[in-house]
Amino acid sequence: MPVNTDYETFEGMLSEDLIAEVAEFVSKLFSSPDGPKVDPKRYATRLRSNLIGCPWVFSGIARRDGRVVGLKLGCSHDPRSFDSYMGGVSPTARRQGVAEELARRQEVWCRAQGFQFITTETEYDNRAMMSLNLKRGFYVAGTVTARRAKLKVLMEKDLREPQETSEETPQTVDCVPSR
Ligand SMILES: CC(C)(COP(=O)(O)OP(=O)(O)OC[C@H]1O[C@@H](n2cnc3c(N)ncnc32)[C@H](O)[C@@H]1OP(=O)(O)O)[C@@H](O)C(=O)NCCC(=O)NCCS
């Protein structure tokens, strides 16, 4: 039976309730039972400080039965280039096009804002994320090394290139105008 997925998009700073929900989701997504854990409170603090003062913030959330199953977050201080810095889909909702739909909505919004590029960093061995980005027209623009962290691949999409299909601007809800 097809599963119904609801998509919401938000412009500007997220509400405290959403920050808490996102932090819980990210904590579940990136904590492993025997390995490193992501503390939702610490993540919420980090997220808040990343987004505060950012002139452009765009978030996409996918829900099933009211529960978050996917998200895509990004922000920017630069009117030319939008940084898509976090994304993920619950294991049970993967390979059903959720990440692709969230990426598509982010891109439509970025085009409507006049951004020329979307950039993102992906760990070198994250095949799923790299494949998704390549499929959506990103290219490798460099690598990023940081002490004690995995090599990251910097990927970029040039929005000035002609689009293959016409895509509609999504409706944003709970919109807090950010500029
Ligand atoms: C990467 C991720 C977000 C993909 O989510 P998803 O909803 O399953 O992706 P989609 O179903 O929209 O897939 C779109 C495309 O991505 C690629 N893709 C997705 N999962 C893949 C996998 N496991 N292996 C290879 N390619 C994959 C494919 O190109 C796919 O297109 P196709 O179905 O036509 O082959 C998900 O695997 C995830 O949450 N991973 C853990 C979190 C993470 O690594 N986040 C990024 C770091 S911030």
Description:
The chain is of the alpha+beta class and 179 residues long. The protein has one domain: 3-Layer(aba) Sandwich (Aminopeptidase). It is built from four helices and seven strands. It has helices at residues 16-30, 40-51, 98-113, 127-135; strands at residues 6-11, 56-64, 67-76, 81-89, 117-123, 139-144, 152-158. Helix 1 crosses helix 2. The radius of gyration is 16 Å and the shape is globular. Mean pLDDT is 91; it is low at 174-179. Coenzyme A (COA) binds at residues 29, 86-89, 94-100, 126-129, 131-132, 135.
Brief rundown of the structure:
The chain is an alpha+beta fold.
Strand and helix map with partners:
Layout: E1 6-11, H1 16-30, H2 40-51, E2 56-64, E3 67-76, E4 81-89, H3 98-113, E5 117-123, H4 127-135, E6 139-144, E7 152-158
Parallel strand pairs: 4-5
Antiparallel strand pairs: 1-2, 2-3, 3-4, 5-7, 6-7
Helix pairs in contact: 1-2
Bound molecules: coenzyme A.
Portion of residues within helices: 25-40%
Q: How many DSSP-defined strands?
A: 7
CATH class: Alpha Beta
* Share of β-strand residues: 25-35%
Total domain modules? 1
Sheet with the most strands: spatial strand order:
1-2-3-4-5-7-6
Low-confidence stretches: 174-179
Rg on CA atoms, Å: 16 Å
Q: What's the tally of helices?
A: 4
| Largest β-sheet summary | 7 strands, mixed
CATH topology name, in short, is Aminopeptidase
At CATH level 2, the architecture is 3-Layer(aba) Sandwich
What is the CATH homology-level superfamily? Answer: Gcn5-related N-acetyltransferase (GNAT)
Net shape: globular
Mean pLDDT over all positions: 91
Structural class: alpha+beta
